[in-house]
């Protein structure tokens, strides 16, 4: 199945470069381009892409707000957002993840990483290495709750084991690492993660990690305890 991609960046030269890379792949088709967040919204509605390659800093509407408008609560369209950033751990990346992005990638990443990221996000997975998830959230812990807030009622829908898995996801552990920690199979972990995402209405494990921090279940810098 062909993955339909929308390119969103205010620099035409970069869009051209991304287009050349992606159109060389048989399973990827670039269906459109946009120079800012407002255009991106219109193009998503008109073209129904599977993945939006989204720049963060753009005129009129930035990538964070555009991501929120495209993938936020109440929006059931197929588009998933992969954020592009110039700097590792850009201060806006955590906001983009909160807004609904499925991951982020550096603009200077090798072509093969860009292609792989598109495929991963299109498949419904998160394009954000577990170690980076933890480092990202800890780095911007000042923007997150202190852990003293009341835990939301939605957490009561999870079993004790699912809460345990959610904490480990928030610590940045992979499925294999969680399986080893809990002495269960990877398949079992995948099942638990799937239940957590479904019950909490989350798209992927990146949003699950952000939720765990924002809900106060996990305190920044506390190793998920």
Automatic annotation (TrEMBL):
Pfam families: GerE, Response_reg
Domain (Response regulatory): residue spans on this chain: 4-122
Gene3D superfamilies per UniProt: 3.40.50.2300
Keyword DNA-binding carried by entry: yes
Domain HTH luxR-type: 151-216
UniProt key word Transit peptide: no
Modified residues (4-aspartylphosphate): 55
PROSITE patterns cross-referenced by the UniProt entry: HTH_LUXR_1, HTH_LUXR_2, RESPONSE_REGULATORY
Protein name: Response regulator transcription factor
Keywords tagged on the record: DNA-binding, Phosphoprotein, Transcription, Transcription regulation
InterPro entries to which the protein is assigned, alphabetical: CheY-like_superfamily (IPR011006), NreC/VraR/RcsB-like_REC (IPR058245), Sig_transdc_resp-reg_C-effctor (IPR016032), Sig_transdc_resp-reg_receiver (IPR001789), Tscrpt_reg_LuxR_C (IPR000792), WalR-like (IPR039420)
Family matches, as CDD domains: LuxR_C_like, REC_NarL-like
């Amino acid at each position: 199945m062909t993955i339909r991609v929308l390119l969103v960046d205010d620099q035409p030269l970069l869009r051209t470069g991304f287009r050349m890379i992606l159109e060389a792949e048989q399973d990827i088709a670039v269906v459109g381009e946009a120079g800012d967040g407002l255009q991106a919204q219109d193009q998503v509605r008109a073209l129904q892409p599977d993945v939006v390659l989204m720049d963060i800093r753009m005129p009129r509407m930035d990538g964070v707000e555009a991501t929120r408008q495209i993938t936020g609560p109440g929006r059931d369209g197929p588009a998933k957002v992969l954020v592009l950033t110039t700097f590792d751990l850009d201060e806006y990346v955590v906001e983009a993840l909160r807004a609904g992005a499925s991951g982020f990638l550096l603009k200077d990443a090798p072509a093969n990483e860009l292609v792989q990221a598109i495929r991963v996000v299109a498949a419904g997975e998160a394009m954000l290495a577990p170690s980076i998830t933890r480092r990202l959230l800890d780095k911007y812990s000042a923007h997150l709750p202190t852990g003293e807030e009341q835990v939301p009622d939605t957490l009561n829908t999870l079993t004790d084991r699912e809460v345990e898995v959610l904490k480990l996801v928030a610590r940045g552990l992979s499925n294999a690492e969680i399986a080893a920690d809990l002495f269960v199979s990877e398949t079992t972990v995948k099942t638990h993660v799937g239940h957590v995402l479904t019950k909490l209405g989350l798209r992927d494990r990146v949003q699950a990690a952000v939720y765990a921090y924002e809900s106060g279940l996990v305190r920044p810098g506390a190793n998920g305890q």
